[in-house]
UniProtKB/TrEMBL annotation:
It is found in: Cell membrane. This is Chromate efflux transporter. It is a multi-pass membrane protein. Keywords: Cell membrane, Membrane, Transmembrane, Transmembrane helix. The chain crosses the membrane at residues 85-106, 112-132, 144-177, 197-217, 229-247, 282-315, 327-344, 350-368, 375-392. Its main location: membrane. PANTHER family: CHROMATE ION TRANSPORTER (EUROFUNG). The gene is chrA. Pfam families: Chromate_transp (PF02417). Belongs to the chromate ion transporter (CHR) (TC 2.A.51) family. The keyword Lipid metabolism does not apply. It comes from Virgibacillus byunsanensis.
Amino acid sequence: MMRNNHSRLEILLTSLKLGLTSFGGPIAHLGYFKDEYIDKRKWLDDKTYADIIALCQFLPGPASSQVGIAIGMLRGGFLGGVISWLGFTIPSVLVLVLFAFLYQSFTLEEAAWIASLKIVAVAVVAHAVLGLGGKLTPDRPRIAIALAAALVMLLFPSAMVQIGIIVVAALIGYVAFSNQAESKVNTFSVSITKKQGVMSLSILVALLIGLPLLSQAVSNTYVSLFDTFFRVGALVFGGGHVVLPLLEQEVVPNGLLSNGEFLAGYGMAQAVPGPLFTFASYLGTMISGIAGAIIATIAIFLPSFLLIVGALPFLSELRKQSKFQGILTGVNASVVGILLAALYDPVFTSSVNNGVDFALAAILFGLLRFWKTPAWLVVIIGVVLGTLLAYVF
């Protein structure tokens, strides 16, 4: 029991550090996770980490949060997943709840340190792409899949196209790589049974059907709030950036928030570390105070827990099957390409505006890649250097 307590404390402290330093959005989060969970702490190997990313790319919801929840569950059971989510999520929730009360006087859109954080994300994502690419695309066929995925994403950027790329890559992997499956795959154990997994998915379906009916029947603000945010969290594909316009359609036309109030929170959500889904905390506070923040936050993330609990018990066994290995081989190669495309747009295009920005990104990348500087320290160095350069140039 003492050992589990130590493990869960480690999960909390590690995820909290990531929640305080993981700037740059969902793609950058995967880079921070790799640096902390895989490279530094060796909780997983690269292949298992890539397989979990591939699984979460298939699921609706915030992919980076789901990856963090899954790693927490593998490390410390269901409670480990909850602790991992709390550590990664609470910092940005607190900032956005506070901002909801102060947003009229809290103008940070043009701050130099926010621009610096975006440049830090360029270095982190580039480092992650290079690291994962070396492991997941070691030969020409997989490099070709990655490049094709990047090309299609750059030409036709959308969440549905991303899902289509993953499906096509899965089919290619099934056909081309099943006969190259590894005979020995590092398995992992999870304390969730298959029966519990099926129950979790059943609860998800029941809530998706039942909540809208309950909301119409009782006409209660909190029930309606829970229904709205749960539905968005369960049905949105493409991660955090996609959820923002969907939430706008739920709250602005219905008169729950003005367009100006929504856009103020939208800008702040892009500037804080941690998952973009915590934008729900801001919206919940604006709509119904602290109680609204709690309800909206729990509701939008609950589908992620139900989906991960439903999927994890089956993943380890499926990874032993040669055909499933082939599918994951193709999907993992496509994920490298999707990350490569995201490195350019939106990460690079929204962060690097001139040669000074590029120089700072190159310095930070060098610190990560060659000097093995911890990601949290790179964040601090990036903010300090970026702020100084902004005053000089």
